[in-house]
Amino acid sequence: MRIAVVGSGVSGLSTTWLLNEYSDHEVHLFEADDRVGGHTNTVHFDPPQHASSPLSLTKVPDHPQDAATSGTPSSQAKPNLQSTPVDTGFIVFNEVTYPNFLRFLRLQGVDILDSDMSFSVSRSSVPRLPRSFPPIPSFGSSLPTITNAGQAVWANRNNQRGASDGDDDEDALLPERGAFEWAGGSPSALFCQFTSLFDPSHWRMVWEIIRFNHEALVTLRLDSNKKRQKGQTEREESICEWLDARGYSDSFRKNYLIPMTACIWSTPPGTALQMFPAVTLLRFMHNHHLLQILNRPQWLTIRGGSSEYIQRILSKLPPGRLHTGQSGAVQPGSAKKFMDGNTREWTFVTADGQEHRFDKIVFATHADISLGILDAALDGGEPLRTALEQFKFSKNKTVLHSDERLMPVRRAAWSAWNFLAEEQDGGVDLDRVTLTYWMNLLQSLPSEKHGPVLVTLNPPPGPSYPAKHLIVREQAYEHPIYTSDSVHFQAEVEKLQGSMGLYFAGAWLKYGFHEDGFSSGMRAAIALGAKAPFEPIPAERPVPHLLLATALVALAERARSIATALFASPVVFGLIVANVLIELAVNIAFAFTTSADSRQSRKCQIRNTLREIRIRWEGSLGHVPNGDKPPLWHPERAINGKGSH
Fold this sequence. Notes:
It is built from 19 helices and 22 strands. It is an alpha+beta fold. It folds into 2 domains: 2-40 and 307-390 and 485-527, FAD/NAD(P)-binding domain, CATH 3.50.50; 41-306 and 392-482 and 546-645, no CATH class. The strands form 6 sheets. Strands 10-7-18-19-20-17-21 form a 7-stranded mixed beta sheet. A hairpin with a 5-residue loop joins strand 14 and strand 15 (355-358). The longest helix is centred in the N-terminal third of the chain and has 26 residues, at 200-225. The model is unreliable at 52-77, 130-171, 227-235, 590-599 and 621-645 (pLDDT under 50). Keywords: Membrane, Transmembrane, Transmembrane helix. The chain crosses the membrane at residues 571-593. Pfam families: NAD_binding_8. Residues 39-82, 626-645 are annotated as: Disordered.
């Protein structure tokens, strides 16, 4: 058969790989963009040569040509920094919940590196009144001194940019960065803001994380035992309703669950809280080991960037089978069913005016794009149309840059994922997901070789946007928005697979991640007759029965609620004031010390160095033939819960 695959993201590539190499079908891949890969996007990072020195307190020019006259020290220019490939979309995966994708990487001989999946929250607040004393540069605070209208001088020795020029709005003041920060990598990161040690709401958040992990498992057990009525949605209860019913605090929501959910699905916090189905979120967190503090899987990344695996697939595709740009852009409304006697085919037209005819079509695009192409072929009451209409997507902007202002103020809080919240008047956060990926840590890119390598999702507009001369690239991606309706209609789309000769593949048919997209593409290809080299397996985990732990958590929560009144005494206020003074003293001491490199970054670099040494050592023993070197990671071991070390 002649089969068209529309869309070259991970789902389309997975389908094309199997149909091209493991079937007798003639497969053609269509991509509207000039680039193949979708969210798999490795770009060339050329370090900006005027990145500011972390210890500098001078103003950095807004334009590279102004560097010579800005008074910027010559030490700020780093002409010896090296370029490197960097991922801006799909970045990391792990040993346990990506079984099919990792088996594919093993077959292709793609090299992998250890990575990290730490998380932090940094909240900016509204500007305060002018201070009568100059702020002290340190890891502990970053407060602006208002010197005149429209100019705020920042005191942050780790990511100082200098004074804001006020070009966007002369009367606007930048928010106070780092007013609240914490990270989950270690106890020192959890209490990187020293006053959090004596903040009852922070301790309650820590306790409620433990409580949440156990109550989530209880909900999942009840849901798995409940027989759903025919036609009922998976779960109409949103995560907001779930939290309300169990009395979780605002601190837990604002500083943990909402940032975590918004970051995972690149969804605005308000949408994530109000619309996201509770059971879907809890099941995803359980499958990805996010409901446990210990025994989490090792995260990985692809050496040289995720685009490495794309070339392995395209190199096997015969000439004339890949259509990109104008020749690959299938026009909306152009798909039609063609019937001539016993011949039943699909036709569509691309942007270059060419008409194409195929026996089957695999739509590996987002649901709204697929529906647009099929618009003329589907009647108003068609079940397929109804199903595809339930899926919505949000557009998010990513910026590859070197501006460290888009990281937490306190170096101890720097993590792989850094959620940046902005508080408005009234204590309500701005409904925008802003997240900075620390690529130096995620992809083992030493900062001394490449400088700061950062990818920020939806950076704040105005003065807080990355400096122009530190921006390397800007890109837009779309992510699915999950509601109870969309989760319900995932199953409906699966029921309609193959009807009318149409198949659908995409990460949006599951949780929205690379493994989901890859496995979806595999299933579509297998349904069309491909003989896969391995059987795709689900990444779902059974829910454990922890009756004793659940009882202890419930008892402790009851005791906490009774003792809540004890935390409302004036003594706590006095302790907080005293610790502000202590933090100020600590700041003075640390102002004269230099920041150490990230421990976790060094750990990943050490593990990857040992991995290379072991590979060379095994090769020197002659046990492994050249060109047939097995990877150190084995999917079978990972599936059984064993790591690579």
